[in-house]
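User: Second chain of the day. Same drill as before.
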Amino acid sequence: MNDQTDESSMEGIAHATAESIADLFLSVTHPKRIIILDLLKKQIVEFSNLMEATEIRKTALSNHLNLLISKRLIERVSHGRYRITLNGESLLQSILSIYETSMVCQEEEKRKLYERFLSIRKLYEKLQIELVLLEPMTVASVSARGKFPENEAWKRMVSFAEPRGLFKDSTKHPVFGYNLLIAEDNSRATSPLDEEYEYVFLIRIDPDTELDGGVEIGQLKGGLFAVTRCTLAHPGGIQPSMVIGWQRLHEWLKSSDYKIGTTHVYLTKLINPTETDEDLLVDLMMPIEKV
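Assistant: Same format as last time:
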């Protein structure tokens, strides 16, 4: 019972203290009062000099001074002469320190944003685009469905291709991937993050290759593609290279004599599929056809 009473008392004191602190800070929310404190921190200043320095009328200045006096931030030394108190000096110093720290943080954030912008622009400008005619081929396909199904689909591809040594010759057995949701709607190159989709991996095989359960054989139509090469993920946590790559392809399309192809799908070709994500190179392949 006594513990509950003590907690209640402490809570009341905390609220009262919070209100007093808020009231104290409220007294220095006006820029003219900050200027007054700053003028008084070095020397005693007369009323007329304060009025000239702050460029405010006599009545307004009197109101500001009286408020600061009531909060014990300044004091009247004699008639028409004022100086800052220790409380006022401490509060002013704290405010200036917080302000300076805040400005440093803002400048650092601006610097990081600018560096990020330069990095993205540099990467964007480096991306080269070429036209590639992909021939039709027999492929083995595996897939998985979910919000981020690529990893699961890739595990299934590895289980099929690795024991057969298909990854050893990426020229003979190229690996492709595509988002089935996008394949059904070529007007977009990405899918919403909150939307489930099916992701498919394909690898070129000989028609007589023995398949496992869950692996299907099919035909990749091929066709004409606009292609740019990039890494799977851009170092440093900056916007993924693949996102920038797709943006670059669509920007190129606007000024070209081509449009999005309707007979084949967006593909991602894995150039070195056995590498880690950091070293993995991919060709982003946008299906195109003449306008």
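The two ends are 84 Å apart (CA to CA).

User: Great, on to the next one.
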